[in-house]
Design brief:
Elements: H1 2-38, E1 54-55, H2 68-71, E2 73-74, H3 81-85, H4 99-108, H5 113-133, E3 141-148, H6 177-205, E4 216-219, H7 223-232, H8 237-240, E5 253-254, E6 256-259, H9 277-289, E7 296-299, H10 315-331, H11 334-341, E8 356-358, E9 365-368, E10 372-373, H12 378-395, H13 412-428, E11 434-439, H14 441-448, E12 458-464, E13 470-473, E14 500-502
Parallel strand pairs: 3-11, 4-6, 4-11, 5-10, 6-7
Antiparallel strand pairs: 1-2, 3-12, 7-9, 8-9, 12-13, 13-14
Length: 503
Amino acid sequence: MESTWASFAPRLGKRWLLLGARVSAVWILSVCLALPIAVIDLSWPSTPQTAEAVKLPPRGSVSYGGSTEQLLALEGAEPENESTERGKGKARHRRRRPAVQLYLRKLFKGQTIANKRRWKRLASEICDWHVFERHSFGAPSKLLIFLTTAGQEQSAGCCGMRSRRNQSVEIDPPLSTQAEDDALDLNGELLKMVQDVQKCEKRKNGTRHPSFCIDAFVSSPLTAAIQTASKATAIVGKDIACKDPHYSETTRTRVTWLLSPLVRERVEGLADVGTELQELLKRLTRFFETVQLERTVVDTGAMAPEQPWWYTNSETQLRDALERTRELFSDTPSSESGEAAAAGVTAEPHEGDAGLAAGSSASSVVAIGYPDILPPSKGSKALKTALDVAEALLLSTVDSGTSTEMPPRESEEEALLRGKILLQSLCKAEQLSTALITTHERFLKVLSRHSTVGSATIKVAMLTCGPVPTLHFLEGLQDISGRGRSNSSSSEDSQESGQSEWS
């Protein structure tokens, strides 16, 4: 027996060695083939381009996972004077990235056959819901598209090196220059996903005019989240939003983002502490001038001036607010709930700042960069009312003397309860069908129950609005390494079907 094993072991080792050599040879060959192509174009702009001066290629030619340079094709018309002057002498210095790095990033980021198949499967699942299930009998359902914030500026680690795990010492840090490019890349991914769903709808319904679109846009009030939301929809936001077919849009047209503290990051450090509303709006105006932000429209109705909207509610306060929200939403019609509880939380008009103008319809709507405001849909208006109500209930539990400095750390259970209040608000908006939500990695990790959630990524979920709202994350875009994990307040996880579910 020993002699047999002694003779077999060398052969087994040789086979593994041969397999490793073949795999290494394939990788080396792919890199060698990429180098000659990558060195052809060594140019990299020293200053960022504005979204108004660029336009996506013709519909259907956008490929998922492309770099910013390929995603944004220059428009034939001359850019506006304001866009030409914006950023001169003010924009941050942008490091020149090697062309080899750009090409390899394009080659290996999201271009695999497995990723493309997952995107097609995801679009098919969304199409089936939109065509067959959303109007079916039983509990109503809604489609939620989550965007995670792109990478923030991090503090230096050991020996001057930077690491994603290092906590930033800056309060409410903005996006890094690399993260701004990652956020712009999301334009192509969102457009490709919506186009695939619309093509499927045409095929299954036999219609020439698809109806799938995004009703409402919600964002965390943290600076990096607003930047991500602004750049991720700067080009395609008006194309994927629900609107009147006769509405005449321009290159300045922007959707309205509802700022809601309910989708803020789970508080763990100084980077999760927010900025007071008045200072936040001034900061966003400065960022528009330095090309760190595109033209943006925000609705601050769920936030109050001089209030620490980033406060951390206790578990008892959150459970009480959740019960009160359920009672109020179940007893109060949607048109009356805003007047019942949201009084006193709308922001005052802000005037006099360059590039910042108050909206004419409501004092809480603020436009940055003089955009043309796309009229909100009925679903967006209903969601705004529900979010204002929920935030007013949470704000009523906070003492007037609450410190605006570092709040206590937020536990996973507290973040989960905050997520349940968010789902109650989404279900209350009866006219809402689809929503695009810009949030953060740790908060989405609590909602999706997966161990890994990356930055600048898209996750899609179905919200079933029964007596207790239930969230099902679709399998199409889950991380391969992600595994469902149990929680005391969750329902049974449908791991066998590849979905994450909780209520």
